[in-house]
Amino acid sequence: MSGAGPGPARARAAAATIVAGVIAGGRSLDDLLASDTEDGAARGLRRSLAYGTLRWHFRLVAILRRLADRPPEGMPPSLSALMEVGLFQLLSGETPPHAAVAETVQAARELGHRRAAGFVNAVLRRFQRERETILAAVDADPAARTAHPRWLVEALERDRPGAAEAILEANNVHPPLWLRVNRRRWTLAGAEQALSASGFTSSRHALARDALRVEPPADVWTLPGFAEGRLSVQDPAAQLAVELLEPRVGERILDACAAPGGKTCHLLERVEGPCEVTALDISEERLKRVRDSLARLGLDAEVRAGDAAAPGTWWDGRPYDRILLDVPCSATGVIRRHPDIKLLRRAGDIPALVRRQAALLDAAWGLLARGGTLLYTSCSVLRAENEEVVSRFLAAEPGARDDTSRRTAGWPARLPTDGPGHALLPGEADTDGFYYACLFKRP
Ligand SMILES: C[S@@+](CC[C@H](N)C(=O)[O-])C[C@H]1O[C@@H](n2cnc3c(N)ncnc32)[C@H](O)[C@@H]1O
């Protein structure tokens, strides 16, 4: 990884192209990596450079602004992205500095910026010389130091006072690999034994009963039991949705925003007998992944495309005993897994998301049987998308009762003033950030 040469330089050039695709192209990292099919030894390096650079982008660009004689926005996107990749390497310390500089300069040539090679060299060398002074100046600004957009730092300080700093830090930690054991096909003890026999260590989660944390991280298809549908990849925060939903045999259950199907599959794995599950999603394209997972895990559900906010177009009129409403959201709770969220999400996106979430909640409530439970979840940590949506709903709907605290005994403590539901903050219980509100419909 550290020797200078065409391979590593090409990996840096490829990483810069991916980073520029997010920064300047507004594309998601998942999409860009899905089309990055070139294999080979440099694949891991390319991906880790892309993730690391995007994770630290807001700090790296602040550094670059102090080093270069022109603003990064005025440079060709692949050139400024490449310099961020080079700075990331110098800061991460995983590559000897001389190799990081030499390979970044070579990568500039690979990207067609021949005449900028000297400029790249000068910028990176200046950083090496003035590193302490530059970092002290950059890190005086909390948004740059924690590598987050300013709007999000301010929103977290306002929404989660006392926890904002810990959230910002947790968002920059490389996330662990968490698996979910398919209870229909395996036990936790069986999975632990098989993983250990294959050289992995695993540990359980305090709250998510089907979760195993596995080290070292690996391509999941190489894990024992994965190809046989005994394991899935899922953060414990997502697994906790099913702990709270408490699905039972014989019930009619709607997963109203189901794709790609992680929670649909989990709830089916957990019910120890027949139940009638509908996995609904507005995106036919994304439902393909639900069908694939159901097939791999040996599970069965009705999978249908439809708008949960307009049930007249797909609902047969029979109420559901339980509804999982895992709303589309800002994804600000899963930044540690998707660092591109920091760049792609804007403050201005939130009001439209909130309107959509409230409309989905109103519509889904109308499909719930009396005595039934609706679980509202999101992978956002912003109060506007969580506590505030649910508070307004509860104020307008006397037939609804917040039942969350009864089911979250033993979870990290919350203050009564925190509002309805339960927000799990990133890193707090070794999980992503998530929000849950169990809403009971009075008989
Ligand atoms: C957070 S994701 C759901 C993740 C899923 N529950 C899981 O665990 O794998 C939100 C989903 O809501 C879907 N969606 C957005 N608006 C919708 C609507 N009006 N009706 C149904 N699904 C919708 C999106 O297509 C997306 O797949």
Offer a concise description of the structure.
With 443 residues, the protein is α/β, with parallel strands linked by helices. It has 18 helices and 12 strands.
Q: Total strand count, please?
A: 12
* General form: globular
| Uncertain residue ranges | 1-5
Strand content: 5-15%
The SSE string, one letter per element, is HHHHHHHHHHEHEEEHEHEHEEHHEHEHEE
Continuous helix count:
18
Helix/strand-derived category reads alpha/beta
Output mean pLDDT. Answer: 95
Radius of gyration: 23 Å
Largest sheet: 8 strands, mixed
Provide the list of bound ligands, each named once. Answer: S-adenosylmethionine
What is the percent of helical residues?
Answer: 40-55%
Distance between the termini: 63 Å
What would you call the quaternary organization? single chain
Descriptive labels:
443 residues; alpha/beta; eight-stranded mixed sheet; four-stranded antiparallel sheet; 14% strand; binds S-adenosylmethionine
Q: What this model shows, in words?
A:
The chain contains 18 helices and 12 strands. It is of the alpha/beta class and 443 residues long. Strands 5, 6, 7, 8, 9, 10, 11 and 12 form an 8-stranded mixed sheet that branches. Strands 2-3-1-4 form a 4-stranded antiparallel sheet, with helices on one face. It binds S-adenosylmethionine. S-adenosylmethionine binds at residues 238, 256-263, 280-283, 286, 307-309, 326, 328, 360.
